[in-house]
Every structure is written in structure tokens, then in C-alpha cells.
Amino acid sequence: MGRKFFVGGNWKMNGNKAGIDGIIAFLKAGPIDPNVDVVVGCPAIYLDYARQQCPDNVQVAAQNAYKVPSGAFTGEISPAMIADIGLQWVILGHSERRAIFGESDELVAEKTKHALDAGLKVIACIGETLAEREAGQTEAVVFRQTAAIAAKITDWTNVVLAYEPVWAIGTGKTASPQQAQEVHAKLREWLKEKVSPEVSDSLRIIYGGSVTAGNAKELGQEGDIDGFLVGGASLKPDFIQIINAKQ
Ligand code: PEP
């Protein structure tokens, strides 16, 4: 085991320079548990600004990147550009990218492969909708989404898998620790069988969906939950308590 706890923040399309200054002030004040990897997903236009301000114990991630290094893709940014400004991380396949911008499993997998090949680390997001959960499709959906990525990559060292049930994102409805643990454990079984026992043991699988300072400790106690991806609460000083949930 020995998987280092990982807490990502996802600012989504929120904030401005003044707001980022405020977030960075509480990140600097911390204190941040040194046993946790902390990465915050920032809107593309502010990536370099956030990188310059963030303390050394907080990495900045892009929230999206395209599947090629450059070219006629108006409005997109590439992993090469993210690396060029000195960043190491990108969030890919967030449910908002999948649902609102129509990103398919295949495209998310292609983006993941390209970002890894370009030297970035990837927070790859998966998760079922409420209708899929109610239809008993949760496992089938998260296995299908993970399989698309597994078909394209062999080295999972620089991947963090974020299980984010869509019905829990931004809704205030958190998966119970048992519900989240159950899916994480199933994913680990799937990885053991379909990828390798080593990847199953070492891959960090984090949970996202209405994580707050109030529920993080309990969620973090589950054996297969290796951290969180946090949306709304990552904009507030409470984020520090979530980062330190294992203390
Ligand atoms: C997210 O955006 O990935 C997320 C989990 O959002 P929230 O924490 O607001 O539910």
C-alpha cells in the first residue's frame, strides 16, 4: 500500500485575480499536512498567475487540455503549453466536460494518453449519473470509463483516478463513506484483473462529490479512499480542514 493521500481542488470557472489571491492566502496560511499531495485546478487564463503565487506545497493543475501538442484547435490548450509554463498536472474527463461539452470516453482516454506522453500527471475523472446508479449501472459505467483509459495507457504512475458520482457533484448530496468505498474497492478489483495487481495496489483513487470539512474525516477513513477532488469547498478556507482530514 503506502499510497500518499491526495487532495485536489477544482475551482471550475470561478474567481478572478482577487479571488485567487484570497484562496492563495489561506493555502499559504495552512498549515498543510506534509503527508498530503495538494493540487488545485485553476481556470486556464489564471494558470500562470496561480502558479506564481501558490506556495511550494501546492501544485496548480489545468482543468482540461486537448489531445495534440498544437494546431488549428481554436480555444483549446495543450499539455505542452501547460508544461511550458512550469505546471505538472491536468484534470481530464470531469463530468462537466463529459456532460456539457460532449467529451466521450474515447476522447478522455486519448487526452489522458497524450497528456502523460507530454510529461504531465493526470487526474482522470469517472463516475455514474443518478439514472445510471438507479438502474444498477454504477459498476458497468465506471469500469467502461476506466477501460477506455486502460486501452490507451500502460504506465499508471502519473495518474490519479477520481471517482465522482455525478449525482453528488455540486448537489450537497455526498456519497456515504460506504457507498464510495464500495465503488473504490470494485475499481481496485477491476484494475487487479484487467491491468495489474501492482497498479491496483499503487493507484490513488480519490473521491469527489460534495466533500466538505464536515464529511471529509469519515470518508478519508475508508481503506480505498486515497483522498478527494473538491469543487465548491476548495474555494473556501474549509479546504485546509479537508486537506488535513487524515490528521
Ligand atoms: C468537482 O467539481 O469535482 C466536485 C466534486 O464538486 P463539489 O465538491 O462542489 O461537489
Uncertain residue ranges: none
User: How many beta-strand segments?
Assistant: 8
Per CATH, the architecture is Alpha-Beta Barrel
| Tally of helical segments | 11
Q: What is the average per-residue confidence, as pLDDT, rounded to a whole number?
A: 97
Question: How many structural domains are formed by the residues?
Answer: 1
Instruction: Give the helix level as a range of percent.
Output: 25-40%
- Secondary-structure content class: alpha/beta
The kinds of small molecule bound in this structure are: phosphoenolpyruvate
H-E order: EHEHEHEHHEHHEHHEHEH
Strand content: 15-25%
CATH superfamily: Aldolase class I
Structure description:
With 247 residues, this protein is of the alpha/beta class. The protein has one domain: TIM Barrel. Helix content is 40%, strand content 17%. Strands 1-2-3-4-5-6-7-8 form an 8-stranded parallel barrel, surrounded by 4 helices. α5 packs parallel to α7. The radius of gyration is 17 Å and the shape is globular. The two termini are 18 Å apart. The mean pLDDT is 97. The structure holds phosphoenolpyruvate (PEP). Phosphoenolpyruvate (PEP) binds next to β8.
